[in-house]
Amino acid sequence: MAFIIDKEELKPGLIIFRRGDVEHKNFYCRIKLPKADRYKTISLKTSNINEARDRAYDYDADVRFRIKHEVPIFDKPFSDVSKEYIESQRAEAQGFTNLSQFDLAALLRILDQNWYFAPL
Fold first, then answer.
1. CA dihedral over 51, 66, 75, 2, signed as positive or negative
2. Res 6 pLDDT > 90
3. d(CA 60, CA 66)
4. Is the pTM of this model over 0.85?
5. Do residues 116 and 106 make contact, with C-beta atoms less than 8 angstroms apart?
6. pLDDT class of 105 with cuts at 50, 70, 90
């Protein structure tokens, strides 16, 4: 099954679509960032096509505003997300279920890869 289904281009650089790899029927929008080979994909949290179109235009306006006023478009870079995931896996391997169970010294030891683990 295709990843992108029910694709509709609302304007150049702005599409709405459904994902074929999920159970729900909600729409997403993908916004092409100007002067970059990069996209912002956002869940529209609706299965209604008309509502999805309206929300996609709203998000497009928000992205254009952010670019114009130099406000960050993305919350976290993938590198930060992956580091957090690795840290949580290491914490779980040490018997902790969440980072709030660490004291500062324990957290610093786990963050230092050479303390418990061989370098990746």
1. positive
2. yes
3. 10
4. no
5. no
6. low
Q: How far is CA 51 from CA 22, 28, 107, in A?
A: 20, 11, 45
> Residue 92: phi, psi to the nearest 5?
-65, -40
Specify burial of residue 27 (Cβ count, 10 A radius: 0-12, 13-18, 19+).
buried
| Distance, first Cα to last Cα, the chain | 35
Q: Name the band, by pLDDT with cuts 50, 70 and 90, for residue 17.
A: very high
The count of other CB atoms within 10 Å of the CB of residue 33 is 16
The values of phi and psi at residue 51, to 5°, are -65, -40
DSSP per-residue string spanning 66-83:
HHHTT--S-SS-HHHHHH
Query: What is the average pLDDT across 70-78?
Result: 85
Q: Nearest-5° angle of CA 49, CA 18, CA 68?
A: 80
The two most distant CA atoms of the chain are separated, in Å, by 55
DSSP state of 37: S
